[in-house]
Specification:
The protein has about 400 residues and is mostly beta strands. It contains four helices and 32 strands. The chain folds into two domains: about 80 residues, no CATH class; about 300 residues, TolB, C-terminal domain (Neuraminidase). It binds 2-acetamido-2-deoxy-beta-D-glucopyranose (6 copies).
Length: about 400
Amino acid sequence: MKAKLAVSALLIGQGYSNFLPALPHDLNKTTWAFWDYQQSSLAVLPGQFNRSAFDAPWDGNSSDIEVKAVYESLNSTQFVAYDNKFFDIIGSAAAVEHIQALAHQSHEAACYIPDLHKLFFVEWGPPGGNNGTHPWQYMLDVNTNTLSKVQTDPPTINAHGCVYFQGSMYIITDGTDGETGYLAKVDPITLKRETLLNNYYGQPFAGFNDLDIDSDGNFYLTDSKSGWARDIVPYTPPTNPSTYFVNATTMRPKVIQTTTGNCNGVAVSESGSIRTVYLPNTGVSEFKPVSKKNPYGQREIWAYDFSAPAPVLTNPRLLNNPISYFYDGIRVSRNGWIFAGAGDGVDVIDPVTGLTLGTIRVGGGDNLAVTVAFGEHEIWIVGRGGVWHVSNVKETLARTW
Ligand SMILES: *[C@@H]1O[C@H](CO)[C@@H](O)[C@H](O)[C@H]1NC(C)=O
Ligand SMILES: *[C@@H]1O[C@H](CO)[C@@H](O)[C@H](O)[C@H]1NC(C)=O
Ligand SMILES: *[C@@H]1O[C@H](CO)[C@@H](O)[C@H](O)[C@H]1NC(C)=O
Ligand SMILES: *[C@@H]1O[C@H](CO)[C@@H](O)[C@H](O)[C@H]1NC(C)=O
Ligand SMILES: *[C@@H]1O[C@H](CO)[C@@H](O)[C@H](O)[C@H]1NC(C)=O
Ligand SMILES: *[C@@H]1O[C@H](CO)[C@@H](O)[C@H](O)[C@H]1NC(C)=O
């Protein structure tokens, strides 16, 4: 009870409702909300209610007029906190702006190149281009908000993930007709491409989905069935979806995780010499024989210890299921917070408790957050509907490597 009073004392503010507690006074009441079980009546909703696992809480149904009004107000926010920690991570000066309105199809592989003030990203999957097959990518000049289509030399087809590391863009692809997925290094200025890895002892990859790179330059590549499932590549996946570790010194690939669900995002976190690998599982997205989101498929995010020097993942633990939708692209900020594209917005997840601390929203409706790239105190979110910029984030986001 004491703790509760202490927290309430900090929260001087407007329109306390039974359902949403007051916000810290320095937060913009128009753009923020706090869904808090401790200081509100949210633990017991009146009337009839229902929500699918794919809809955001504020897209849920309710027979109660007040609950409906709360949902409506939540749907006009930019930030929904579920935890006090979220206020400190985002801060009161942050704002979300929809800076590029593009088609409602997946935009991913966001890679921020700080020296050039440019954001690289791709449009992935049908119906774009030649049935979703692209020999081009996007480059956004973030100073002028000018968007261009670029082509690497030689052209890279169906890029799906990107990480900027020590002056280069590292890109993975799904492959295309006559070419299976590979890992490549691209010079962001000349756009010259060098292919680094395209096989696992002669076995083609199913189609890479995403990658991350640790401070030693080692690669973590997720090989997924999504390219096949969406007819982006004609090849049947040779194995179950798998995560590969590629040693930067030897370029020798090794499987570190497999699933009968699906691989998708990947992020590596470092704290001193301790490495943690985060992997969401997206078996929930089924495409064949019928395209559907199956709520009984996997939607979890798992954390693993990376047992150096052996490239083996140990101590697997289920961090969480998203409050809604599924986790797509994930990135870890400098101090270890996990940022995950999760449908209606980007969820910020506590790496130890797995609790969802809050959501950075992209406007609701058909907009959908797929993945993020960090600047020092800013975030670019790419997804269905284009690009969003989150400015003036309090936390330092870009990592040190
Ligand atoms: C709060 O956010 C709204 C919507 O973005 C904006 O119009 C308003 O100026 C902001 N208020 C303050 C005090 O910054
Ligand atoms: C919630 O909605 C789903 C989909 O319409 C339905 O299958 C389910 O029975 C509903 N649950 C409740 C408790 O009404
Ligand atoms: C919400 O209500 C609408 C309209 O009554 C209905 O079509 C839909 O199935 C409901 N969804 C859930 C999850 O109950
Ligand atoms: C796109 O798909 C349609 C329908 O499957 C097919 O008729 C057409 O040839 C395809 N176009 C290209 C460029 O692959
Ligand atoms: C990468 O390979 C080098 C050379 O064999 C080895 O010393 C190092 O421990 C390996 N790193 C990992 C993380 O496996
Ligand atoms: C939420 O807001 C968006 C944008 O205004 C709108 O398109 C969508 O229909 C709203 N969702 C609900 C459930 O009202």
